[in-house]
Structure formats: structure tokens, C-alpha cells
Amino acid sequence: MFPPLAYLQWIEGRPAAAEHDLGSSDLRRPPAGDPDDPVPSRLRGRSAPEYDRSLRERVAAEYDLDETNVLLTAGATHGGFLASATAAALARERDGGDDGPRPWALVEAPGYEPLVETPRGIGSRAARFRRPGPTYDLDPDRVAAAAADLAGPLAHVTVTNRHNPTGALTDRATLAATAEVAADRGGHLLVDEVYAPYTVREGGQGGSAETATSDGAFGGPTGAGLPATVTVGSLTKFHGLGGLRVGWITGPQAFVERARLVEHHVPALAAPSVALARRFFAHRDDLVADAREHCRRNHELLAAFLDGRDDLAGSVEPGSPFAYLEHERADGDAVSEAAWDAGVLVVPGRFFGLDDGVRVSLGRAPDDCAAALEAFGRVLDGL
């Protein structure tokens, strides 16, 4: 069974209806030109590349992998579905097939609802392990303790990096240690990395945002290439190209080959999206630099906003343009409802398992985000 996803039902239509959008986390620009033009505004006027490498080869090169370690997907949601289904299939094949016990998906908490419900829909059992506040760091020992309590095969351990909804960033060494925990039980580590590139370059303007790593894809940390590790990425969040629905998974060659067989059961990536994604990679450095500057400015706006409020608790992680924040007198639903009444969209933390606060995301243009924070500040003043 695939139950309705409460968060996606709640958020549907709200970003477009809100006067001030502090709920959407993708670094999106206002639409420009003909709304029926299939070319995203960020790619308009940019030349198509001469055919040199396929999109799969381009993605593989970004992660310093062989193309046999990459599977293109119709966005990150599609990639996460394929990764979870493939890990479950491998666990079943390893432990008795259809007659064996149902495998486990061990998923971080707090966390994004589909990461739990998609494995359940596929037929896996879901268990949780805690990323404890206030820092919400990933702790391999906590993962190991939770895995030890599971009776039956482990299909995968699932984490997000950056963590959704808090923005906490995990380094590659910690991801490697967590992957070892999953591998010891015969499973894989699945890392949703759609927010991993949300970093800034060292030495850039704004010292509060000096986090950047230069050893991963698009400048952010990655688990790609680690043993027993599968990563999910896309052009949606950091790159602001959600309309293309272009994503990918990386993983061991045997995992990718099995995922190709799973993909036969669901729609695949459309050829026009592939062509436009190749145009992105032809201008990759310029577009990534632009996105990083967008991210830096929004991070600084959010950090300054929190620093200026004595009624909010939380942390804007270095380089992150989104954060989980709690108000001293009102819970997440009360804050979100008051904001919505004033035309401001923020997301209740209950959709991530955190009832006391809200996720505030600065994805829109910096000037728009500055106005949105001013409006949100007036809401908070009135609580």
C-alpha cells in the first residue's frame, strides 16, 4: 500500500498561493518569458553542447565514478523509489525470496515522510533511529544500536545530507562509518544528497557561511563511491531545474544493474529532459557559481534573521539557507497557521516528526526572501 503523503498533500498549491514563500527549499528564480516554453529560464539563451559525452557520463564524471555506477532517473523521488525497491529486492533474494521475512528499512528521525512511507509501500518494514537535537548529527553508533534490535534482513539505512529539515551537514568519514554498519547487516546506506551542494566556497564573502567542501559533487560532500553506499541526487534543489525532473542514483555496479531491472516497472527519464540537462552541464561552472552565490546570500539573510530574534530557538547551520526553528510561546502548527493567515508560507515541523517548530526555507531570490522574512517577523511579533 502507498498511503497518501500528508506533507505533499498539505504543501500542494501553497507556494504559488503564498504572498511570501518561506516553505520551498529549491533555489528557484521567478519564471521569465513564455510560460509554455519547455526550456527553463536558467537555460534560455545558453547554447546546446556539441555531442561529446552522454548525460550519464557527465554525471559520473561529477562524482569521479565510472558510468556503470550511475543510473539516470526521473528526479530524486524516482531515484529514491528505485534505490529503496532495489535494496529490498536484493535483501529478499539474499534471505529466502518471497518466502523469506520482509526486509527492514532503517530511517533517520526526524526526517522526511516519503523516506519512511515509500519503503512501506514497496513492502519493507520501517524502523527509525534518532538524530538527536540540538545538532541533529548523524551518529553511526546510534544506527548500529537500532540495527541490532531488528529481527530480520536489513535492506537499507536511509539518511539525508544536508539533513532535512535542520540543515545539518555530515562529512564523508561519518557516512563511511554508517555504511559499514549497514554492510555488516548485509544492507546498503542510502543517502539523499539533494541538499548536499548547499555550501559556499571557503574565503567567500560572509564569514558565517564558510563551510564549503571542495571534495564532492558540485562542491558539497558526497557518499558516492563508498562501499555499500547508494546516493540520490538531482538538478531540482540546488540547481533550480525542477521542471526537468532529472535525477540519478550512484552505487556499486551490481546495485545499479539490479536497479535497471526494477526500473522496467516504472516510467523512465524523458529524452527532452536529458537534452536540456546536457545543456546544463555544458555551462556547469557558471550555473553552479550562480547557485552558490544565491545560496550564500539567502543563508546570510536567514542567519541574520535568527540572530536578531530573542523569541526563536534553533540553529542556521553554516552555509544552509534553511533551518528548523522553534518559537518560545507557540508550537509549529500555531506559527505556521498565523503565518499563512498573513500570506507567509512556513512548514510545520510535525511533517518531519518535530511538533514544536517550523522549517523556514529561503529558496527564492534574495530580495524576495528579505521581504518574506520581514513579513514573517511581523507575524512572530504578533504571537
From TrEMBL:
One GO molecular function term of this record is: transaminase activity
Annotated keywords = Aminotransferase, Transferase
Superkingdom assignment: Archaea
Signal peptide (UniProt feature, chain positions): none
EC number of this enzyme = 2.6.1.-
Necessary cofactors? pyridoxal 5'-phosphate
Does the record bear Glycosyltransferase in its keywords? no
* EC top class, as a word: transferase
- CDD domains per the record? AAT_like
Outline the extent of the Aminotransferase class I/classII large domain.
Answer: 54-376
> Which Pfam families does the entry mention?
Aminotran_1_2
Record's compositionally biased regions (Basic and acidic residues): 19-31
* Stretch list, region Disordered: 19-53
Q: Which family does it belong to?
A: Belongs to the class-I pyridoxal-phosphate-dependent aminotransferase family.
The cross-references to PANTHER family, in alphabetical order and at most eight, read: AMINOTRANSFERASE FUNCTION, HYPOTHETICAL (EUROFUNG) (PTHR43510)
Q: Please give the name of this protein.
A: Aminotransferase
Q: In which organism is this protein found?
A: Halobaculum roseum
